[in-house]
Predict the 3D structure of the following.
Amino acid sequence: MKRFRPYRTTQEIRDQYADVRLDVSDFIYPYFVVEGKNVREEIPSMEGIYRFSTDELLKDVAETVSLGIDKILLFGVIADDTKDDRGSRGTSPDSVICKAVKAIKEHFPKVIVFTDICLCEYTSHGHCGLLHGHEVDNDSTLPLLAEMAYQHALAGADFVAPSAMMDGQVEAIRQRLDSAGLPTKILAYSAKYASAFYGPFRDAAGSTPSFGDRKSYQMDFRTTEQGLDEIAADIEEGADWIMVKPAMSYLDMLHRAAVRFPDYPLVAYQVSGEYAMLKNGAKAGFFNEERIFFESLIAIKRSGARYIISYYAKKQGHE
Ligand code: PBG
């Protein structure tokens, strides 16, 4: 008989044998940014997560930084009546994100700022690219994504993170950054699945498509090798870091990616629906909030992810 229980007798011994750990430096904390002043509105489907105007955002970033978290990811949220079919508000040099990035970099120069690159938050139809009829047109979307990335980079973003799932988006952005001589890195949302787990996010960002769904550009979750091919293509196109999204139901893909691409920092996105599920389950009394999040984040780390984007980062990050 092999005896395992001696590894588990006390907390100290269990700590000694634990080979997966969370560190505050593992986390990237997401923010939703709106225009205006004094705005700090909680997102109904994501308790504890807010939409901030830049002035309020700076206060919250100060708190985040005080917890030791040095990486944040920004999403822009704009009023519906300012959206158009090209997402013009997202690509302009004075977009809500450009202004927020400048303010953050001015006050917290050491914070590593990631910005999401996608049209869905800014288009009246809510799709991630330009429409041709009722179809998203891949190639005419690329220059707009490149322009958005360029503007964010000029504003001071450290990483741009293309999430539109247009073929060639990483290459288009890389070329644009390189030709401008900007050192900005690319975190590629490489294996991003068409997932029902994004529900609360679309609520938060007001980015639900006005018709149809995102299945013609985000990945079919019934595929396996395609995810690895997507990552390989993004690396080929110039990605610095790579991502699998969502996280908890995709740990197998995270593990495959970690094994196949050991030289590229792998990011897992614990998405809005995963957060809401755990948060609300805890609220309903089904489990202890801290323990359920800790276990889920450890599992994501154990799968091979190097970094985790999580709405729970501020709660977990400082442990
Ligand atoms: C698209 C984008 C989405 C998320 C991140 N970037 C929404 C989507 O693709 O439908 C989802 C993140 C989350 O659910 O937390 N810009």
Q: What stands out?
A: The pocket of PBG is lined by residues 116, 118, 120, 163, 198, 201-202, 214, 271-272 (CB under 6 Å).
